[in-house]
Amino acid sequence: MPKFRADRLLLVFAALSLMACGEPREDIVLLDEPAAPAATARTESQPLGAGVGGRDGLRMVGSSTVFPFATAVAENFGAKSTFPTPVVEATGTGGGMNLFCAGVGLGFPDLTGASRPIKATEYQLCQDNGVVAITEIPIGYDGIVLGNSISSDAMDIERVQLFLALAAETPMPITEQGEPLFDDQGALSEGRSFGEIAGFSCHRFIPNPFQRWSDISSDLPAERIEVFGPPPTSGTRDAFVELDMIMGAREVECLSALSESDEHMFERLASRIREDGAWVDAGENDNTIVQTLANSPTAFGIFGYSFLEQNGDRIQAARIDGITPSYENISNGVYPGSRSLFVYVKNQHVGVAPGLLPFVEELTSEDAWGPFGYLAERGLIALPEMRRQEAAQSARALTPMQTPEQ
Q1: Does the structure show a pLDDT above 90 at 251?
Q2: Which of 63, 206, 349, 381 could pair with 113 in a Cys bridge, judged by C-beta atoms 3.0 to 4.6 Å apart?
Q3: What is the share, in percent, of the chain residues with pLDDT greater than 90?
Q4: What is the mean pLDDT of residues 81-109?
């Protein structure tokens, strides 16, 4: 005899009752599919067969940094359960949010991974498109790494130097006497040298004049500045800008003062990455950056710590502000580029998408995200035990997140 879900019957009866009374009602839309015949109705504990909503299993999009962890959970989930192995796509954090927030129903992703917290604008996009119940799951830590080939020397660099190397514009470099050293186009004035730079003036801003690392400091390599990094849609890039570029800019005296007097202008200057070839957008896949570095001894790249762990035989990390990116330094927040990773769940898909809650339970199991779990083998740095327990409890209860502050 065909089975029916009690909650769906209640929705039908409630809708019919309201229609019969002539009262206005709010449409409830969960599925972007025709109503299924009685014989195809299923419960959350049963796998959903082919032909329902155009897909068989769960669909997850988002961050390329979260991608290897999400893929590992999907593979284990598919092997352990009776549900199909979820499909995981690396679309970048921003691209994933756009897809995730586009609507409710099996035509849209069930989960998205992010290498930064959801932005207020993205949360509002979700709300505008009917995605009104979202659970935020912090899954662990990662670090933003500046790395290069092991065939070259490792770099020891400060965040302020990273900002000066990669910002689209810099304050005017000046001498000890306060004289400008460059023209308005960023060309070095005749008879002047980079070695005369004693400070910066925020009365004028110029296109980034630094072409070699050694132009910034004689302690840095005398090589052309060439950094391969993620595109604007990447959460890794967002995190790099926030943790390294903006924090580095604050170490320039006049920019620190500007952050107090005109925060908007400071943020614009500190977050804009140069587009003259010193920075190269290398796509959403951090593996592409790693492969490029292995074949380009003088180039550097920006990527997640997990990719360093997996490719330690080919690439090495720079020390940032004197600190090496390591499991311990990232987990305790000492490393300047430490960040949290997230998975966001579309709660309205529970009971609709096949196996969503069981997938969340697998993700938040100690076998997966614990310090000795299979995600640690992929490079994920586990949350502290107490925070892990709290996050698992919240995730499994599908506790909706609050509106983000910014």
Answers
A1: yes
A2: 63
A3: 74
A4: 95
Helices (H), 202-249: 213-216, 235-240, 247-249
Quote the distance between the C-alpha of residue 146 and its chain's center: 16
Question: Is residue 368 classed as helix, strand or coil in its secondary structure?
Answer: helix
- Residue 150's φ and ψ, nearest 5 degrees, are -70, -10
Six-digit token string for 183? 């023209």
Among 272, 280, 265, 264, smallest CA distance to 168 is for: 272
Burial 229-267 (b: 16+ CB within 10 A, else e): bbeebbbbbbbbbbbbbbbbbbebeebeebbeeeeeebe
Confidence tier at 406 by pLDDT (50, 70, 90): low
- Taking the model in full, what pTM does it have? 0.73
Biggest alpha carbon distance in the chain? 92
- The sign one gets for the Cα dihedral 397, 104, 110, 102 is negative
**CB-based burial of residue 281 (10 Å sphere; 0-12 exposed, 13-18 middle, 19+ buried)?**
middle
Task: Give Cα separations from 359 to 86, 90, 210, 362, 370 (angstroms).
Answer: 9, 18, 49, 5, 16
CA-to-CA dists, residue 203 to 105, 163, 170, angstroms:
53, 18, 11
